[in-house]
Amino acid sequence: MSEDLVNDQILDSIADNIIDKLDALDDEMWEFFNDVSSEYGLHPDDDHEKIIQIMIDKEFDKQSQ
Q1: CA gap 17, 12 in Å, rounded
Q2: Average pLDDT along the chain
Q3: In the list 6, 19, 42, 53, which could disulfide-bond 47, CB 3.0-4.6 Å?
């Protein structure tokens, strides 16, 4: 498997995990969502997708270290 394909699979897994936890109203994940929203000056309703993408990127970076 190419590294790009592996990275895509990891990103998909992270995205699924984040979205599942947000849908399940996981307090810790919503805290992360709100922290990202505040840190980047994004509105939770208007910028929902942008916030989730940043969360995915942050988690990917964390796992890559």
Answers
A1: 9
A2: 94
A3: 42
| Amino acid identity, position 65 | Q
Q: What angle do CA 36, 59, 2 make, to 5 degrees?
A: 140
8 Å CB contact between 51 and 33: yes
Write out pLDDT tens, residues 25-53. Answer: 999 999 999 999 999 999 999 999 999 99
- Residue 13 phi, psi (nearest 5): -65, -45
Distance separating alpha carbons of residues 19 and 13, to the nearest angstrom:
10
What φ, ψ does residue 25 adopt, rounded to 5°?
A: 60, 40
